[in-house]
């Protein structure tokens, strides 16, 4: 049992990070505001969790301009996809 | 254990919510079905049942049928927009987002092609086949769009295509197939969606 629990990724302990990863697993890319609405968060709250996931190289950002408005698109990295998949597998094993 | 189960539920919900158009209102489906049934009943009672009873020529008949169909379409789309907007608001979502646009785009292509094709049929005086073409193209549009919304829409699409083929085989009974497809099917599937998703 202890072994299985150790497979759970500490980075995904927070429900918000779990949400961000879930959204990016099924969407090629999502911008900041859409993410904010989906997860029903404030700017600051979302930004801090995004920074954490970026720091782990689980997600990447692409800054661009739409007209004159800055727009940041987030997408999952290969590392992030594997890490999240492992986490999902560990979760599934635990509830079996 | 409890937390892990909750986590998995949250993951699944967030994946669905972010990739599918879930604001589609089942109730608007019921209303669209009722509108289509009334429109078909009007066409049947007023024109098709006994063509000799009215003094319209072929072109006038086609114009009246087209106006009837456009009115039904306009009302149905209005209901869909209004009630989906209300549902989105209730769920704290925006009606227009990436998945809504994807759904509309994927439904729109077969629908536009079918619409133009049907108008060409009408214009050539081939009125009977139009029940079939509208059903088939609409069904294909639904199947195409169903990837981005509720899975029930996929089966509604298949039902419409089958009815459309039926309408082509039994050409003189097209109005019956049309009424089942656009009327009764919308009421039935609308009620299923309403019960399964709207009431939550």
Question: How would you characterize this protein structure?
Answer:
The complex is a heterodimer of chains A (96) and B (200). Chain A is α+β, with helices and mostly antiparallel strands. Chain A has one domain: Arc Repressor Mutant, subunit A, CATH 1.10.10.10. Chain A has five helices and three strands, in the order H-H-E-H-H-E-E-H. Chain A has a three-stranded antiparallel β-sheet with strand order 1-3-2. In chain A, strand 2 (59-66) and strand 3 form a beta hairpin. Chain B is mainly alpha-helical. Chain B has one domain (24-198). In chain B, 80% of the residues lie in helices and 0% in strands. Chain B has seven helices and no strands. The longest helix of chain B has 33 residues, at 58-90. The radius of gyration of chain B is 19 Å and the shape is elongated. Chain B starts with a helix and ends with a helix. The mean pLDDT of chain B is 92. At the A-B interface, helix 2, helix 3 and helix 5 of A face helix 1 of B.
Our measurement of the CA-to-CA distance between the termini of chain A, rounded to an integer number of angstroms, reads: 12 Å
The major β-sheet of chain B equals: none
Please give the domain count of chain A.
1
Order of helices and strands of chain A: HHEHHEEH
Structural class of chain B: mainly alpha
Short description:
The complex is a heterodimer of chains A (96) and B (200). Chain A has 96 residues and is α+β, with helices and mostly antiparallel strands.
Question: Which keywords apply here?
Answer:
heterodimer, A: 96 residues, alpha+beta, Arc Repressor Mutant, subunit A, 3-stranded antiparallel beta sheet, 3 strands, elongated, B: mainly alpha, 0% strand
């Amino acid at each position: 049992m202890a072994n299985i629990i150790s497979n759970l990724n500490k980075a995904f302990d927070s429900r918000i990070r779990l949400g961000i990863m879930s959204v990016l697993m099924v969407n090629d890319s999502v911008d900041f505001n859409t993410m904010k609405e989906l997860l029903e968060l404030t700017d600051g709250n979302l930004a801090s969790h995004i920074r954490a996931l970026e720091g782990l190289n689980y997600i990447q950002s692409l800054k661009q301009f739409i007209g004159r408005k800055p727009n940041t698109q987030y997408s999952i990295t290969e590392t992030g996809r594997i890490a999240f998949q492992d986490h999902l597998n560990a979760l599934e094993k635990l509830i079996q | 254990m409890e937390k892990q189960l909750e986590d998995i539920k949250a993951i699944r919900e967030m994946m669905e919510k972010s990739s599918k158009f879930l604001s589609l209102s089942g109730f608007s489906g019921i209303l669209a079905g009722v509108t289509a049934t009334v429109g078909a009943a009007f066409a049947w009672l007023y024109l098709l049942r006994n063509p000799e009873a009215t003094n319209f020529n072929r072109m006038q008949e086609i114009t009246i049928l087209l106006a009837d169909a456009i009115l039904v379409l306009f009302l149905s789309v209005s209901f869909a927009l209004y009630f989906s907007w209300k549902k989105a608001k209730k769920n704290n979502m925006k009606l227009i987002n990436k998945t809504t646009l994807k759904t509309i785009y994927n439904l729109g292509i077969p629908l536009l092609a079918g619409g133009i094709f049907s108008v060409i049929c009408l214009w050539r005086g081939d009125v009977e086949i139009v029940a079939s073409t509208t059903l088939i193209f609409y069904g294909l549009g639904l199947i195409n769009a169903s990837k981005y919304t509720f899975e029930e829409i996929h089966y509604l699409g298949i039902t419409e295509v089958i009815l459309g083929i039926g309408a082509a085989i039994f050409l003189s009974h097209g109005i019956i197939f049309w009424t089942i497809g656009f009327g009764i099917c919308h009421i039935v599937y609308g009620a299923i969606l309403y019960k399964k998703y709207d009431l939550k």
